[in-house]
Amino acid sequence: LKFRLAGYPRKHNEGRVEVFYNDEWGTICDDDFTLANAHVLCRHLGFVAATGWAHSAKYGKGVGRIWLDNVNCAGGEKSIGDCKHRGWGNSDCSHEEDAGVICKDERIPGFKDSNVIEVRKLLARVGRDPAEPAARSPAVGQPCRGAAQPGLMEPQAGWPSTPPLPVGRAGPVSGLLSPCRLFTERQQLNYRLHSVSCTGTEVHLSMCAFEFYRGNTSAACGAGMPAVVSCVPGPLFATGNGHKKKQRQQQQGQPRIRLKGGAKVGEGRVEVLKSSEWGTICDDRWNLLSASVVCRELGFGSAKEALTGARMGQGTGPIHINEVQCLGTEKSLWSCPFKNITQEDCKHTEDAAVRCNIPYMGYENLIRLSGGRSRFEGRVEVAVGAGDGDQPRWGLVCGEGWGTLEAMVACRQLGLGFANHGLQETWYWDASNVTEMVLSGVKCAGHEMSLSHCQHHGTSLNCRNTGTRFAAGVICSES
Known about the structure:
This protein is an alpha+beta fold. Helix content is 11%, strand content 23%.
């Protein structure tokens, strides 16, 4: 079984649920639908849980089969197929009753999309530079979240003429689809859009100009091919020896905007530097367009959310500006129209914040916790030597010099929020079968995305106490 979110308009973590069964995509009827059903489906889609569900084709009517009806889950099932239902393909519904889900915007650590397809080998096979986008894309750092999504677009009108390439997420992808197989499979595809025309600064593809195919779509895009993209991480997410160099280049010159108070990379309260003093932005008229300008200025993709009401905590000091009204095309927030305000016009309970799209880098697969009483605490174990298909070797981190800043990075890399404590001794936690110390001298600034980006001793271990009781540990918190 494969699952995907579809429909319009929607965010990346919500939509009409479509399931791939018996070589055909279909929908789920909303009869007797519950939040427990949504929990199971959201986990299929890689999210930790559901926050709601939608009935009556809120995200638009699907096409093809209605695979499931009268679904009744308890909520803990591993597969939607384990829930009670009328049987596959047995339904008395129409597509006006297609069910949708709203998932909590938090990914399951280590989750990989089942339909992610390798693009780099295929790009090389057709003679393109693997690092070159196969289709016109927005600013560097713009992520591609998820794999091939419902419906495909015809490239003939408004898209560059490129070979057929499968869509993958920004960052590592796996598997391979041959050009012959792709050509064969496109014969059965449903094409929804054509004549897509973007400027490159839109927050979402739905904001571009496009046209829908009407009626029978089986004959659509007869002379064309599926429109696809190949995404590459931006400079902030560069790996290897050039990481610190590129990071320094990004930081050259005095930054005039930053994110504070967020537990994860690419999210936080927006703060701006004015008259040598950092201050916040009032949330009046704060929207996705302005939030996306902030995200791109900081080296991320477009904005997933424009948050109001001090959702990322209240700032201190001045509130510098209000009523920011970006068009979305600006390269800096300072190029957008805004109002200078006095402190009396707004309160810090109205501080604006953002959640930005970031490429999937798989950092959470290189760290884990052991021995703790819950998933939020434990002895830190890191993977070393994981490259070129080699199996990673797991080991401990030396506790000498380990503190809150290092714990902040570890909790961020784990996707577990904020750091409550960084522990230099962990003798009171249950032992694991990992006893070798593999990392020492870790010293973080606190903003890094992975412990591997922090200063450390490299391959030459230098730790006075290498026993497991002196291994580094963390206690993380979502708040």
